[in-house]
Design brief:
Elements lengths: L6 H18 L4 H13 L4 H12 L3 H13 L4 H25 L36 H17 L4 H6 L2 H12 L5 H21 L8 H4 L3
Helix pairs in contact: 1-9, 3-8, 4-5, 5-6, 5-9, 6-8, 6-9
Length: about 220
């Protein structure tokens, strides 16, 4: 587990600040457009689009919260579930207020987006109106990153390889969301960095490495 005072944490925080500054001055506009143009040239058919939409849904914050609530019910994963929920709430609030300050506009709406069933819509990255027109950093990708990092920390002691494999989840879902024009590639990088940073802070402060109930048991 990375410590808040470690050199790697300081590097991550500094790198996020640097990337955010460059986004703010538009340094990645060309890269964002090149990646978006490459995606548009792929010309996915309607079946492929529905597959992408189905995958993208797994990155919505509400679904991650539901999984976190389920984890809190089980005693062995209760502490992890609580920390995940707290981390996602912090990320959602923090990013909502960062977005308008940074000012990166959302990608244009996908022209060949298939018609979705009545009542079904892809979740907005921000629920508050003043942040909905901006995309950097991605709340969805930050939440997926936090979820994966925190779960990975817990299972790495017994299942080290599995803790690495689960990173396929945010990479797959994030790529699908980018292909659906929900984000630019730099939005995912920003979401990844801030998701890791906040996860390190919450896991250190709330002592994720100590199993639920251990602190209390030590008193007896």
């Amino acid at each position: 587990m990375l410590l808040i005072r470690s050199s790697r944490f300081i590097f991550l925080a500094g790198f996020f600040i640097l990337v955010t500054f460059l986004v703010n001055i538009g340094a990645f506009n060309t890269v964002n457009q090149i990646v978006l143009d490459a995606i548009d040239k792929a010309r996915f058919n309607q079946t492929s689009m529905y597959v992408l939409i189905t995958i993208a849904v797994f990155g919505e914050v509400v679904n991650i919260i539901i999984v976190s609530i389920i984890l809190t019910i089980v005693r062995s994963t209760r502490k992890m579930g609580m920390i995940i929920m707290i981390t996602i709430v912090i990320l959602s609030i923090l990013i909502t207020y960062l977005k308008p300050i940074i000012g990166q506009k959302r990608p244009p709406t996908l022209e060949n987006m298939p018609r979705l069933p009545k009542g079904f819509n892809l979740e907005n990255d921000s629920v508050i109106s003043f942040a909905q027109d901006f995309s950097y950093p991605s709340v969805h990708f930050a939440s997926m990153t936090a979820f994966t990092y925190l779960v990975g920390l817990v299972i790495s002691k017994k299942h080290f390889k599995t803790s690495k494999v689960i990173w396929i989840y945010p990479l797959t879902v994030g790529t699908s969301q980018m292909m659906l024009h929900q984000y630019y590639v730099i939005d995912l990088l920003g979401g990844f960095l801030i998701g890791i940073i906040i996860s390190i802070v919450t896991s250190n402060i709330m002592k994720l490495h100590i199993p639920y109930g251990s602190e209390r048991d030590k008193k007896f």
